[in-house]
Amino acid sequence: GNSVTQMEGPVTLSEEAFLTINCTYTATGYPSLFWYVQYPGEGLQLLLKATKADDKGSNKGFEATYRKETTSFHLEKGSVQVSDSAVYFCALSDHGTTGNQFYFGTGTSLTVIP
Amino acid sequence: KAGVTQTPRYLIKTRGQQVTLSCSPISGHRSVSWYQQTPGQGLQFLFEYFSETQRNKGNFPGRFSGRQFSNSRSEMNVSTLELGDSALYLCASSITGAGSDTQYFGPGTRLTVL
Q: I want to staple A44 with a disulfide (CB 3.0 to 4.6 A). Which of A75, B35, B99, B105 is the partner?
């Protein structure tokens, strides 16, 4: 079946530190991979996506590369800011299924301290 | 373009009651999905609708149901509420619901069952 395993949190970093949040997946078909971010009291916002192997998604300084050989989609940012404090979710959507069913990781809470 | 809207934002109900939540997708989006988010279980897929038809369903009891109207607006209903139904219910829309489509999330409806 389909599943996403995400690095456990919470993660606390100092401002300007390097961020990595690990994400690995299991899929029966050919998934698209996503990172979503959730700020307190809000819904999920798309951060970046990649739809095929070796694609790199990027947005707001965040990057993730779709690695089929290691079934991974790790999120990275070179220098985090206080405003990046949020919960980050890795997700996959399997092209092989009918319709748009997303499978989410458990979320990683990030706190950035000044 | 307006985002996904959900009403109401907050609800308080008592056990045994039923509740209806509403979701208006982004204009032009025909696929609507519903998720339940709880601290213990994370994000769990409820169901997906496309062109007024339920296309995918998660592993929830029959007390959870939904429908979609011809204008793509969707409602979900929970009957005979239980304490464990307390959660944030998120609605997401996408253009066609294809595997590579991005899902755009609403702010959610916070349901509290007393």
A: B105
